[in-house]
Amino acid sequence: MSQIPTLISDLAVILISAGLVTLLFKKLKQPVVLGYIVAGILAGPSIEEIPTVTDVESIRIWADIGVIFLLFALGLEFSFKKLVKVGGTAVIGAITVVIGMMTLGYATGLLLGWGQMNSLFLGGMLSMSSTTIIFKAFDDMGLQNQRFAGVVFGILVVEDLFAVLLMVLLSTVAVSKHVEGIELLDSVVKLGVFLLFCFVVGIYLLPSFLKKAKSFLNDETLLVVSIGLCLGMVIIATKAGFSSALGAFVMGSILAETVEAERIERLVKPVKDLFGAIFFVSVGMLIDPQMLWEYKWPILLITFVVMVGQILFASFGVLLSGQPLKIAIQSGFSLAQIGEFAFIIAGLGLSLKVTDHFLYPIVVAVSVLTTFFTPYMIRLAEPACRLADRALPERWKRFLERYASGSNTIPQKSAWHKLLKSLARIVGTYTAVCVVLIFIWLQVVTPVLLHYLPGWRGNVLSLALILMLISPMLRAIVMKKNHSEEFQRLWHDSKYNRGPLVSLIILRILLCVALVMLPVARLLNAAVGILLAIAVVLTLFIIFSKRLKRRSILMERQFFSNLSAREVEEERKSPINQRFANHLLERDLHLADFEVKQNSPSMGKSLRELNFRQKCNVNVVTIIRGDQRINIPGGDERLYPFDKLVVVGSDNDLEHFRQYLEERYKQSSAERSAMRRREIRMEQITISEGSCLIGRSIIQSGIRDKAACLVIGIERGATSIKNPPPDTVFEKGDIVWLVGERERLIQLSEGQVVAGD
């Protein structure tokens, strides 16, 4: 008898238990993540009465794969450009939460006597709210279009990046066993250079590759290519000394800038869901219920710290950024939980063997408790806002209103500020890319070239190739912004500006000389003076070469074209200018999307008949119908299934509109349910002895006129009569095939509808 591998049987136990438990949690309207954790407890070694997983180490490998796909999917939703757009509110709020909760978690760990390393990791675990749980809660409660929801989503985007940075920093601290500012700074710089290099090179290459291969990319090939790219970046990240999760996140964020991002996200979702389920089940498998009971008081204390700390720090951070008090409180109450990143950081501590085993199940238990309370905390935000409004003195409220209105004014930026900001971004980006390319070239490519072409010839060839590779970027470092509007204005405004402007150019030239010196000094054996002279000559050639100028401009155009491709596509499909949407947001007005469902009672009716403006105080500004976009539709415009309505209104108006649509859809569903009972069906009846139909023809029986049914066939002995004529006479034993409404057919079969009734 054949034996299946242990891994397959363990996987069967995991998925069966996860499926059954999550069905129960769905029925109870609880997050499926909690169901996975409970399933893990049941499938884990702590429960001996039922079949459990036998090879835990193999499942941990699956769990690692789950983390990779979770971070990859998170990166697809992240996008570095989205980080730039979230604004000061999200950045200030996230920084306040992360720093505050890190400190509070660290102090709580020390208070419990858990030591420095356990306390440090505890602080990291408590500093990140759960993106998955909050998205699900907002979706279930219909709050996605509320103003505070946009603030919360922005904070979550920034927290995702901080979480990735935190994993790298905690790994560095764990390896060195102590905290040193120089080592942390070194790690941050390396991480920043790595992220910048991957982002720039990835944006330059991947969108172009996907565009050229688009005709070959069906769903199957695109899924395989996307996962291959993800795992390839995982390998690169681990080779560079970073975690596999960071590599997956980076590749996801790069692909998030491509036109295919939404399609990739849709294709990867089932894979992410499967391996994510295995990951969360493996989290539950590491929990010992007896240990939870033993540490019940620390669990309750940390749960209290998370909920109170997140509410206070998030509310303060959002308030500090200039948002109104109500938005700040609603945001704080929404973020009062920890989730998937807490598990990942806890697993990191275990894998590095720097945290005690009790910390993992404690944090999981805290996550379960805070997740359970998340919907209730969101609902408590409104009463808390009313309480704060009554409790605060009038002068405080006036101060907060002035502060919030003042933060929305647009600051004027000087020409110097704009120029220096642009130069810092350009010079920093190109310098980081050049440094990484030079390092990779000297460490990887040059040894291969020297193997096939040893001696000075190999060195010269290697130098020529690397200079050809980085020369467009070197030229951009020196020449970019020298003919910009800000540069020209400063040059002509005052002669005192010319000295600093020329100094900026000279400094950039010296930076290019230093970058050229890196490969020159490594590959050429000569005196320092000669090497410096060679570097200066090469730099001047790069600056004044017209061919390099054209190449540099073309490369830059391709990069920015790739970077903005998705944004251009979204702008083409977008119902309204995004800047206008942000302008509305500042005035408590929102643009929200609502889809016309199939069988909706609004279907086929005109906007004048529906009269949403009077009934819900909202305006339909756009109707998106496939590729067609109808801006400012007239009252005679009718709605069709799957139309997307873009409406504008305040929080309360949009919520009223959503509820109005749901109530109408429920009423329509009840009507459709009644109509389904009148659906046409096909049945057969047998004419038995004593039936009043015997001896009567079809037309005489009244089956069509009185019972509203149609005879489509009669089986008589070995013969079948298809579509019998109206004068066909029924005989005993005939099997009659009828088509009609279900209720009428039942009455016919029971003999309740007969001729003469």
Written overview of the protein:
Helix content is 70%, strand content 6%. The chain has 30 helices and 8 strands. The chain starts with 5 loop residues before the first helix and ends in an 8-residue tail after the last helix.
Which residues form runs of ≥5 with pLDDT under 50? 408-412, 575-587
Rg measurement, Å: 34 Å
The proportion of strand residues reads: 5-15%
What is the count of DSSP helices, taking H or I runs of 4+ residues? 30
Average pLDDT confidence is 78
Helix content: 55-70%
- Can you summarize the main beta sheet? 4 strands, antiparallel
Helix-strand makeup class: alpha+beta
Give the N-to-C terminal Cα separation.
68 Å
C-alpha geometry = globular
Q: Tally the beta strands.
A: 8
Biggest sheet: strands side by side, in what order? 1-4-2-3
InterPro entries: Cation/H_exchanger_TM, Na+/solute_symporter_sf, RCK_C, RCK_C_sf
GO molecular function, one term: monoatomic cation transmembrane transporter activity
Organism: Candidatus Parabacteroides intestinigallinarum
Subcellular location: Membrane
